Amino acid sequence: MLRFFLLLITPLIILSQETHENYIKSLKNGALLVRLTTNENLINYYLNNNNIQKANNEIEKQNKINNNIIASFQNTWSFCPVYFFYSNNYIDIKNNNFEFVFKDINGVKLSESEKENLKDNFLISYFGANLGTLNFNALVLTNRNLHKLHRSIPRFVRTYKGLWFLERKKEKSIQILQKKIEFYWSGKQ
């Protein structure tokens, strides 16, 4: 009975491991898409309540945060190409429509060959709450559906946001995630 059970489980484990390895392979051969937040709901709330000044302040604050994230990735990340999109365009990205993906702070759009290379060949990263039972702020790596990756794959780096004496800079979190991915990738080749 135990042998029969092992015979049934072994192929599932092997298939599962191949799928997990394909995530990092798709990252190496494709690109990392970084999701930038828009705070659209908060801004709309301010606008609906005729509080234009607070809405403008929030837009300016969010643009500064997003530009900092873009600059940090461009200066630090080298494992694969890195592109950016805003969170309100996620459904388009999920459906392989990359019209809203851009390369840098200036909003340079992707070429047709870059868009073609991205089709089903990317992972998504973002700064925010880690998905799971423990909520903590992190640089999170997810699949195209924003689902957690398997725990054998590097999937987050804590930022320690709110803990002033431990808080990591964005560049440091990006460096750590890249080192984890490179270590994982080198072990699979």
Q: Write down the overall mean pLDDT.
A: 84
Alpha-beta content class = alpha/beta
SSE run: HEHHEHHEEEH
What radius of gyration results from the CA coordinates?
Answer: 19 Å
Strand order of the largest sheet: 2-1-3-4-5
Low-confidence stretches: 4-18
Beta percentage is 5-15%
Helix content: 40-55%
Walkthrough of the structure:
The chain has helices at 2-29, 40-48, 52-76, 90-94, 112-118, 170-188, and strands at residues 31-36, 82-86, 122-129, 137-142, 156-158. With 189 residues, it is an alpha/beta fold. Helix 2 runs antiparallel to helix 3 and helix 3 crosses helix 6. It has a domain at 29-36 and 78-188. A hairpin with a 7-residue loop joins strand 3 and strand 4. A 5-stranded mixed β-sheet has the order 2-1-3-4-5. Mean pLDDT is 84; it is low at 4-18.
